[in-house]
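Title: Prediction job returns without error message
Component: structure pipeline
Severity: low
Priority: P3
Assignee: unassigned

Description:
Job completed but the reporter wants confirmation the result is attached to the right record. Sequence as submitted:
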Amino acid sequence: MKLFDAISELPERPVLPLMGYPGIAATGNSVANVLTNRDPHIESLAFLEDRYHPPCLFHVMDLTVEAETLGLEVRFSDEGPPSVVNHPIGTLEQLGSLSVPDPRKDGRMQLFGDVVSRVAMRIDGMMGAYCVGPFTLAAELCGAEELAVRTITDGGFVKDMMSFTTLVCQAYARAMAAVGARVVAILEPTAVILSPDSFQKIVLEPLRSIAAAIRDRDGCPVLHICGDSTHLLGGMASSGVDGLSLDHPVDLATALEAVPADMLVIGNVDPVGVMMEAEPAAVTEVARSLIERFGGKQNFVLGTGCDLPIETPLENIDALFAAAK
């Protein structure tokens, strides 16, 4: 079943905020503790499930899981998501020293799979998981600026890098779907730097193969690219996914025109300017405005433009859910 069909069967208007980090704050846990230990992670998700009963509950977002499993150093912060410290892969020889990890036993891939499998059995709605996109993983391995330059000067290196990172992302995404994630969101923020032509040449086929890997395990793939991805909507719509999660700079009217009628468009309340910084009344106003404009579209799903900051007031998330109802 496609994600569009599953969402269409829901009795209420769905709302899909990406809200893992406020769950950490609400349970008094630290970011590092939640992202490196099963039980605190499950505790944070259980709080969100009990308070909101979302149609799809995602685990806490972490774009460093795959990179760390490949041996890169990761820095944790209580202020938000972790980051990769160094980018050591600059030659084909260094790339050749890496091997595709086994998500069932390697690094924190295994830990996140354990979280997903346990939470999926406890919740009312669908379980959601994340995997990093292959271009973003390539940027973590060799550095975003270096990768951007090499897309112009060293196509062979980029091709080999993308071949490897695609295999890593396929393995992890397939594993997450296999252990209970009904929805797997492919997070490809670094791709926003690409032109439409470069996106088509470098990223599109890898994304299609990852989407296919998710479907192989009866999962529903969704693609998220941070920032203003308007110039990439055509490529995103042909990437083989069931839905696009769009950040707040994207005009949803334009996005809805660019995608098939059965491809979800999820978004796109500003996660910082509205969800974190505004009052609940302003959240309600923005959410109702989006519903009034696009609520007639069956493939529109109200959500946040990106992952909510850890400082986001729960009252603002309350207001978002209330507006959807």
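Comment from assignee: result matches the submitted record. The chain has one domain: 3-271+298-312.
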